[in-house]
Amino acid sequence: MAQASPAPSGMSPETSLFGTYNRTPQRFVRGEGVWLVDQDERRYMDFVAGIAVNVLGHAHPHLVDTMKSQAERLWHTSNLFQIDGGERLAERLCEATFAEKVFFTNSGTEAVECAIKTARRYHFDGGSPERVTILTFDGAFHGRTLAAIAAGGNEAYLKGFGPKPEGFETLAFGDEEAFKKAVVRADIAAVMIEPVQGEGGVNVVPDQCLRAIRELCDAYGVALIFDEIQTGVGRTGYLFAHQRIGVEPDIMAIAKGIGGGFPMGACLAREQYAAVMVPGTHGTTYGGNPMAMAIGNAVLDVVLADGFLENVRDRSRDLRQSLGALIDLYPDIFEAVRGEGLLVGLKCKVPVGNVVDAARSNSLLLVAAGDNVVRLLPPLIVSREDIAFAMDALEVSAQQLTKALEENRATA
Fold first, then answer.
1. Residue 36 near residue 43 (C-beta atoms within 8 A)
2. pLDDT at position 25, please?
3. Regarding beta strands 265-269 and 101-105, do their DSSP bridges make them parallel or antiparallel, or are they unpaired?
């Protein structure tokens, strides 16, 4: 009799789901603004926001009304037909940005895929088919498709999935000389960069660095792609992070916030780049369907309203000032604050997982990032009082972690 094969490492025996996530024990049953409520009616302040997705929090009335109204009329038709909401959303995104054309997707990684294909096709049609290489940077995260993990260059994500797709090269973050040497090569199609690395540890690209990259891309005919999947739709206090310093890309991938919790993304591009993506070059079954377009327009109704982004910047200042004071009080636990707007990273001296666990035990939800950084990603509707609650929870967590440190030192 043949013996049963052992379960692959990581596969959860308790459910029929792939074991690809180390999920926490909570099962949330509803959300209310910045709060999530679990099956035991315990309330948690949500400073994860679906990893920067729920920009308007949970059950926002305008999104709920829009969803109900659209669900009663039309869910899906495919891109074989005209979709009014998609045309309107594209016009609004173009009016608010550098872009002149938009392709809607289901997710951020598909938006990145579209951006890569657009850049390569642009050079192919322009008589330079050898220009295929996409330059990226250490610490980048561009999604989970094979092309996106190749672009990110993280060996942990590439391991075990066969040959790494060719045409991607990862440079050291902040190595100006390496970039200058690479960008002049004849095989370079594009540079892809997050203005603020989220998963990589909330690393802000210096303004002068982004300006220099733009200038070199212009000098050598290289496309500049911004990945604003996490930073976009108000997260940094501007509709898009690059708008603060006035450095514009040629192509941009967005997702997360534009759906406010509904899965959708988009690739935005200048006309000259979008023009090469003719019928037959690219497509999607679900991307841009009426339901997603209704929600995307509803999100913009709120985010583009007078005073909304200004309020995000105000709350960002409140949060950063509070975190600065916390670092002064608990220098054995925390050491630095990073980020822009309400994409905030808190560099930890103790393992970041301990901070996330302690905060959760005190009713505050946080998410880890690379470089031992914990991310604070509240919904953009967060109030001063909400931030005060979160800081109280984080301070209690710091006290508990400090006590544990002292006990460990005493017994060492």
1. yes
2. 86
3. antiparallel
Give the model's pLDDT for residue 174: 84
**Alpha carbon separation from 240 to 107, 294, 408 (Å, rounded):** 17, 21, 45
pLDDT number for residue 13: 57
Q: Is 373 within 8 Å of 348 (Cβ atoms)? A: yes
Question: 208-225 as b/e, with b when 16 or more CB fall inside 10 Å?
Answer: ebbeebbebbeeeebbbb
Dihedral sign for Cα 30, 32, 38, 39, please.
negative
Residue 356, phi-psi category: left (phi > 0), alpha (psi -120 to 50), beta (remainder)? alpha
Q: In a 10 Å sphere around its CB, with 0-12 CB exposed, 13-18 middle and 19+ buried, how is residue 194 labelled?
A: buried
pTM above 0.85, yes or no: yes
Place of tokens 């002049």: 184
For residues 317-333, give the mean pLDDT: 97
Element (H or E) spanning 188, and its range?
A: strand 188-193
User: 384: left (phi > 0), else alpha (psi -120 to 50), else beta?
Assistant: alpha
- Among residues 47, 202, 203, 189, the alpha carbon closest in space to that of 130 is found at 189
Give yes or no for a contact between 258 and 249, defined as CB atoms under 8 angstroms apart.
no
Report yes or no: 223 and 98 within 8 Å, Cβ to Cβ: no
Whether the per-residue pLDDT at 6 is higher than 50: the answer is no
H or E segment to which residue 392 belongs: helix 384-411
Q: What is the mean pLDDT of the chain?
A: 95
DSSP characters over 68-121: HHHHTT-S---TTS--HHHHHHHHHHHHHSS-SEEEEESSHHHHHHHHHHHHHH
Q: What is the pLDDT at residue 161?
A: 96
- Amino acid identity at 44: Y
Q: Tokens 């959303």 belong to which residue? A: 89
Please answer whether residues 191 and 213 qualify as being in contact, where contact means their C-beta atoms are separated by less than 8 angstroms: yes
